[in-house]
Specification:
The protein is an alpha/beta fold and 367 residues long. The protein is built from ten helices and 17 strands. It is globular and about 60 Å long. The two termini are 22 Å apart. Bound molecules: nicotinamide-adenine-dinucleotide (NAD). The site of nicotinamide-adenine-dinucleotide (NAD) has 22 residues, from α4.
Length: 367
Amino acid sequence: MALPLRVGIVGCGNISGIYFQNLGRYRSTQVVACADLDLGRAQDAAAKHGLPKALTTEQLLADPEVDLVLNLTIPNAHASVAMAAIEAGKHVYNEKPLTISFRDGKTLIESASAKSLRVGCAPDTFMGAGIQTCRKLIDEGMIGEPIACEAHMQCHGHESWHPSPEFYYQKGGGPMLDMGPYYLTALVNLMGGIRRVAGFARATFPTRTITSQPKHGKVIDVETPTHIAGSMEFASGAIGMVVQSFDVWHGNVPPLIIHGTEGSLLVGDPNAFGDTVQVRLKGDSDWRTIDLVHNFAENSRGVGVLDMAHGIEEGRPHRANGDLALHVLEAMHAFGESSESGAYRVLETSVVRPAAMAKSEFSEDLS
Ligand SMILES: NC(=O)c1ccc[n+]([C@@H]2O[C@H](COP(=O)([O-])OP(=O)(O)OC[C@H]3O[C@@H](n4cnc5c(N)ncnc54)[C@H](O)[C@@H]3O)[C@@H](O)[C@H]2O)c1
């Protein structure tokens, strides 16, 4: 396949703008069409970003000029849109989570593989300068052997700012499926795959009232756990703790920290591409900040698609891949399943860590 990879975007909502911007800027990707259930949204996006085509989803999937479908729909449409893309013979890259159910995710990966098509999935924040700097420090042995980690996302939900926040409280929403992908994908990239998990989950508030516009005052029924706490054992033997919550008014713990035999590493916010990285080794009297020298320190959503374009062209695996996303999806569900059953959940999937990024990776795409 010749570059640029021709991308068709399905779902022109809140998050789509940054993808239009970045994929329009990289040399090896080109957005050629967009679609939405609401055709007016697709037309607005096409006009704003100078695209020749605003289409229905069916038209976009049938368009021979589209190589890859970038699926930015809401989570409960991820599986159906992605499966339709594979059936139409297109590569697909989903926003997170891969799908809502593990079974749908597995079917998607198997169907794509049977047709020699690729599945990619957000988040790609782990390819940013912050987490890649941490990856380099860990791989070089700076903190010794990683033995433990803690991952915390604590907030009071998204109904105060998102224009259509209902999906966050429906089945398939909740903090684990919404924000867990950033934390667990970062951890798997840094520490390797997860072997088994245990968890507790609850929904503290039965309803949520939207305070953003245009749905101010609308009451949403909560259908999913909104506070999940768990522990996990990595295949390496390291032990992790995770809290993902929409029930907390004021959290006060670092988002992601990794402890090694020689010291500890503050990874920063895994929902960002270039947050501050700090290290404190066993003899140090204080934390010290590490310079970020890799590319992609700014909001680079879409770098996973760029990597997929190069991966397809070079015949190498892409980093934000379906196997990684499926492993993270299984782990996220396993916390809730463990909470219900009262038993550990041993994961059936395993993964290989994606290749580390070179400091100047894809520099030619940025010039
Ligand atoms: N908003 C954020 O800050 C953010 C950040 C990172 C990731 N995400 C993820 O991005 C995805 C989209 O989130 P969003 O905030 O942009 O949501 P949104 O509701 O603003 O936009 C979703 C768009 O998809 C369209 N859509 C829904 N079902 C469709 C279908 N079957 N076919 C075609 N179009 C369909 C909707 O009409 C809407 O325009 C979600 O998976 C979310 O988890 C969002």
